[in-house]
Amino acid sequence: MIMNRRDFIKVVGLGAVTLYLSGCGAAAVDGGKKESEASAQSSVSEGKAMKIVLINSSPHSEAQSTSRYLAQRFVDGAKSAGHEIFIFDAAHEETHPCQGCDHCGMDGDCVFNDAIQTKLMPKMLEADLLVLVTPLYYYGMSAQLKIIVDRFYSRTTRLNGKKSMIMATAWNSADWTMEALKTHYETLVRYMSWQDVGQVWAIGCGTRAMVERSEFGDMAFKIGSAL
Ligand SMILES: Cc1cc2nc3c(=O)[nH]c(=O)nc-3n(C[C@H](O)[C@H](O)[C@H](O)COP(=O)(O)O)c2cc1C
Prior knowledge:
By secondary structure, the chain is α/β, with parallel strands linked by helices. The chain contains ten helices and five strands; from the N terminus they run H-H-H-H-E-H-E-H-E-H-E-H-E-H-H. Strands 2-1-3-4-5 form a five-stranded parallel sheet, with helices on both faces. Helix 5 (about 65-80) links the parallel strand 1 (about 50-55) and strand 2 (about 85-90).
C-alpha cells in the first residue's frame, strides 16, 4: 500500500489494522529496493575501536519510537564490534536553537551553556563517527535534530572531516519519501567534509510494530557490526 503526501497524516490516527496493511512489509516489497539504502564501507575503522556519538531526536519513548529502535539495533552492532558509543537524546535534553549572534565566531563557546554545549559538543569534538537519527517530519529531519545541526556552527571547522551516518524512519513508502532529507544529508556531508559510512532510509515504518517487522533493523545492526 503506497501512501501519498497527504495520507501519512490521515492514517496516523487510524487503528492497528491500517497500520498493519500500511506497514514495512509493503514498503520492503514496493519501495524498499529503490528507496531504502544501507551501506557500510568495510574497514571503516581500520580495526581500531572508534568513538561514536549517536544523536536520537524522536520525542517518542524508547519503547514506542521507530527511529530509536533502529538506533538501538545499530548500537548493538557497533558494540559487538568493540566501538564506544555516546548517545545524546536531543528531544529530552535542554537545547536551544542557534540565535545567529556569532558570539562563538564559528569556533568558540555558544551563549547557551546548555546540554549541547556541556554534554554533546565535547563528545562530538573527540568522536570519530557522528550518527544522526531522526523521524521524517514534513520530509525533513525533526526540529529536535535540526537544532543540534545548526549548533554545529559554533565548532564548524573542528567538526570537519569526521565520519558520518544517518538513519531515518517515515510513514510513507513512496519512492520519493526520503529524497529531500537524503539530499540535505548529502549536502551536509559535502559541506562538512565528512565521510559518509552508512544510510538507512526506513520508509513504511510509521509505528514500532512496522519497523520491527521490517528489514531496516537488521540493516542498522549490520552497518554497526561492520564498522
Ligand atoms: C510532525 C510529524 C511530521 C511527520 N511527517 C512525515 C512525513 O513528512 N512523511 C512521512 O512519511 N511520515 C511523517 N511522519 C510520520 C513519522 O515520520 C513516522 O511515524 C516515524 O516512524 C516516527 O518515528 P519515531 O517513532 O522515531 O518518532 C510525521 C510525524 C509527525 C509527528
